[in-house]
Amino acid sequence: MGLTDLVAQFIRSALESDQSLELRRGELAERFGCAPSQINYVLSTRFSPEQGYIVESRRGGGGYIRIRRVEAGPRLILMHALASVGSSIDAASAAAVLTNLDAAGAITPAEGRLMAAAMSERALAGVPAERKGTLRAEIFKQMLLACADAG
Amino acid sequence: MGLTDLVAQFIRSALESDQSLELRRGELAERFGCAPSQINYVLSTRFSPEQGYIVESRRGGGGYIRIRRVEAGPRLILMHALASVGSSIDAASAAAVLTNLDAAGAITPAEGRLMAAAMSERALAGVPAERKGTLRAEIFKQMLLACADAG
DNA sequence: CCTCCTTTGACCTTTTCTGACCTTTATTAT
DNA sequence: ATAATAAAGGTCAGAAAAGGTCAAAGGAGG
Description:
8 helices; 2 domains; DNA-binding; Phenylalanyl-tRNA Synthetase, Chain B, domain 1
């Protein structure tokens, strides 16, 4: 088993006792004798939102990385929606996803309207056509993540 | 938790009982065993006007620092928010506006997080720096409109 | 050989904290 | 009154302490 999986396993087992985990990137890297950036690799390949994890971090003195596991329920539905968005999406498809989320009770109608507004043609007017889809997807994902964050 | 957050917490809790607080920079610094200028750092990063605080001070003998929390009515705050957005805004300022809207009860915390996410650097990465502010402002306004629409 | 996943290292950004030096105000001495 | 001194607080640059990004090298499997 490679380094990546070792670190991933370490994190997963730590998450079994506590459902939220806070760690220092540098410390963890030292413990496994690897480059700090390796930790970022582990996080992005093994603890992505699509895989049901929320990762937050802070730089500077006293910085940290916090990892949370998302359990079944509305939050997990949001994560699945997030995974389905992909790297680009048009306004109509986004609206459809929102309708489903609302129907499933994962978001409130108000939240749906808010997100639709953020991704509307009107809001994104001025963005070159070939970039709109990508940008919309990025905004959508960040918003869905924020929703899951709140739960 | 770092020094900055300790001091900030101390001040916030003092502000809970009294809505205006007066203190000596030197005393506070000594109590926390730090450089006096550290207090200025705390004030400028945690108690800025954008975050809803007014800080006044006086030098010289008998000098002091006075901190007040500003609270306006929801309507006034919302108007102010709309006006303050203008044609361009950065992520930090937008976040501060949202904090105030939340504190004034004009939006829910969940809505605040959602909007912050939609305008985050992360969501808008990939947008040329010189267009980011404008786009963020556009998205912000559309979202605020949607909020007003719903509310 | 070719491709995909891993791993590293160089360089970047953000946040905190301190120390040296400056300005303002009050008090005290002449 | 005026001048000197003491007692605040203000500013700013820089060091230190995190974490982030990205391209390139390394390796395993087909």
